[in-house]
Structure formats: structure tokens, C-alpha cells
Amino acid sequence: MFDPLIHLPHAPKDWKGYEPATPLTDFLMARIGVSGQPITTAEYMRHALTHPLHGYYTSSSQRQNKTDFVTAPELSSVFGHSLCVWFMTVWQQEPLGKPSDIQFVELGPGRGTLMADLLELAHSSLLLDFGQSIRTVHLIESSLELRLEQQQTLKKVLERETDSFVNTIRIEWHDDFSSFQSKRDKSIPTMVVMQEFIDALPVHQFQKTDDGWRERMIDVASADATKEEVTPAVELLMSSNYDQYDQFPEGTVVEICPDAIFLAQDVARVLEESQGAALIIDYGEEGTTDTLRAFSRHKQVPLTSRPGQVDVTADVDFFALKNCLSTGNAGQEKNINTEDIKDSSKTTFKGIEATSIHAFGPIQQGEFLMRMGAADLTMKTIEKPETTDDQAQAFTDALKYLVMPEHMGGKFKVLALARKRDGLFGPPGIE
Question: Does the keyword Transmembrane apply (predicted)?
């Protein structure tokens, strides 16, 4: 980070044009100053997003003014309805075969809109059997204020009891996924959804220099805020995959998100123990490059601009998520060829112990939603007597934004974690 008061030899009298420090700026500078060492991009990202007092997602004042992004569930209820169709189909088919009890888990539920839309369709007359099988909804959320907002959002849906449906669903909150793992009912199948969650998990960045691989660090000593150093993470990176990384040309940047890898493996273990399926929906590609960036009001800003007051994100490496669950390579490592390097830097990881859980996809979000009937769901919503002309146009515009390749439809990908059907086929829509 760059502090003009420290780093300019002659501070100007007029500070117009300089960004004021944020509370998190002061914290990070003290943190770096006391330790005498720079911090990793992962540590910076973790503080910027989830610092207990000053994080982008945890600060109440910041949340009230947040206009930096729009998520798919906020665009249209059809998004949540489409996911409901997928989970209902998984519930119907083998190997589950319509169990009488299931539980849902959502990581990063935001305002609760996605789960509310999913439950709304599940409780309709069309999917009533599926809706009646939902016993518990677990929300992974550490913010008390967001929990209250989620509670209000879900309350509106769950209070709509009819002659054919009486709500018996319990809503439970957990600070993290490990808390859910320890408290869950292992006797019933689990359905997991992660929508725009993994892109906010901290990433380490590594760059190949003329002196070898170095980890990018955040310091207060230069205006560009980043420098490269040899760290224990570099040594760990190279220890098991040296031949692979030795192929990359100088200047290559690799991003690794250990939290995402561990989370995917934990979810796979839950699905292995209790059956079920998971959907991961996020922006990213099968591989990794230099994608760590910050956004404010829909515009990209410097990474270290106004820490705690801008969104920091990185593309999801779907190749890494798939590879860490690779049952065929569990306990082994797989090299890549030079053709992979030309497109994107693909990194490999050791798989977990062999399980029956496989990763399917990713496919584009637009393709997935259309296969789940998003167009028909939109038409049914438009044809309701209470839908106005303006609302009908809004639903149409939202569908286009969700499914068109030049918008969310192409930028976002869908990855499923599930067992194979009949030992051969993948889950619905992502075969």
C-alpha cells in the first residue's frame, strides 16, 4: 500500500486527488509495521473482505451502501427456481430415489433471496412432494445482521401455508462449513449450493521471475503495493509440482486458493457420507491466470484502493476444484502439457481418498439455466394475471442477462458434485 505521508519525500500542501485512509488501511499498516514483514495477497484479501469490524462483507455501514455488483438471484426469481428444478430432479433420480427427508446447505446466502426463491417453487403444487421432503435449511453465515435479514426474507416464504402445504422446515445458521459438518444430521441426504461464494475466498499469487518462483506480497513501501518474495508457500508450491511449474515462461502468474480446495473436499466428504449433490456457480475458467482485482461501483479500481470499502475478488479455477476431487488420481499427481500453458496456467493438486463423488462440468450458466427450463419458468411468471407489462419486460430482460453468453450466461460457470447415475451418467443438465 502507498502512504504519501510516509513515502513522498516532500508531502504536498494540497492533498487533492489522494485517497483518504480507511480504518482497515490503518490496521493493515500497523500489522505490517509491527511484524516488519509484508503480507500475502491471501491475507490482504481475507482482511479486506471479512475483517470483523472493517471488512467489506462484515461492516454494516459498508453493506448499506454496497452498489458494486448485482448477483443472479437479485435479478430474477427464475434463477432460484431453475436451481430448484435441478435439485428436485436429482432428488427424484437414482441413486437418491425420492428420499422422504433431505436438508439444504447454502454458503454465502447474502440476503437469503436465492434460498427463498428455491423454497417458493419447492412449495408450489407442481413440486409439492419435493418441498415436503425438505426438513432443514442450513445457512453458512457469520454476520449477525445478515442472519436477521435472511430470517426476514425466508419468513415471508415459509409463512405462506396452504391447504396442501404446512411448513415444517427449520432454519439453522452456522459460522462456517465445519460447524455444519459437526452438527448435521448424517442420516439424511444433503443438497449444497454455493453461488458467488468461492470467488471471495483468499488467493495466493505466485509469479515466475528470472530468479525463479516468488510469491506476490502486499507492503507499504511502493506505490504499486506489490512485491515478490520467497515464502514458505513458494517452497510448498514447488515441492510437489516442480516439473509442472518449471514449464511456465517467465512472467507467468499462478493463483491458488487453498480454502476453495479444502472446502470442495469437505463437501465431497459430506456427500459421500450422507448422499446428495452440490452446485457451485461462479465466474472463472478451467485454469488460473492473474485475476485478483478490486471493484467499486461496477468499475475496476487498484487492488489496494480503499481497503475494506471495495470488493476484492478472483476468478474461480474450476480445473483445480475438479482435480482435487479426482478419484482416478487420488494420492497421485498429474502433469500438464505445453498446450495447456498457452491458454491458461493449469495447476494440479493431490486428490482426496477415493470416493464415489465426481465433479461434472463446468458448463456455462446460460446453457445450464436453459436446460433447467428457465425460459418456460419466465413465461409462466409473465403469464400470471398479477404481472404488469413493466414487470413482464423486466423478467424478459433479466432472463437475457442471465443466459446470454456476452453477459452472465457465458461469464459464469456451473460445476456439480454428485454420484454417477447407474455408474455411468452425470447429474441432470451436466452430463
Answer: no
Structural element, H or E, at residue 39? strand 39-40
Distance (Å, rounded) from C-alpha 21 to C-alpha 403? 40
Distance from C-alpha of 321 to C-alpha of 272, rounded to nearest angstrom: 17
**pLDDT tens readout for residues 203-237:** 999 999 888 888 999 988 544 455 666 676 666 66
Residue listed under C-alpha cell 520467497:
230
- The count of structural domains within the chain is 1
Q: Considering only CA atoms, which of 331, 417, 401 is closest in space to residue 71?
A: 401
Neighbouring C-beta atoms of residue 6, cutoff 10 Å: 12
Give CA–CA dist 200/24, Å, rounded. Answer: 18
Examine residue 95 and say whether the peptide bond preceding it is cis (omega within 30 degrees of 0). yes
Specify whether the CB–CB gap between 217 and 229 falls below 8 A. yes
Amino acid at 376: D
CATH number, position 362: 3.40.50.12710
Q: What are phi and psi of 91, to 5 degrees?
A: -60, -40
Q: What is the pLDDT of residues 146-171, one digit of tens each?
A: 999 999 999 998 887 655 555 689 99
Cis previous bond, 362, omega within 30: yes
CB 24 within 8 A of CB 45: no
In the three-class reduction of DSSP (H, G, I as helix; E, B as strand; rest coil), residue 176 is classed as: coil
pTM value surpassing 0.85: yes
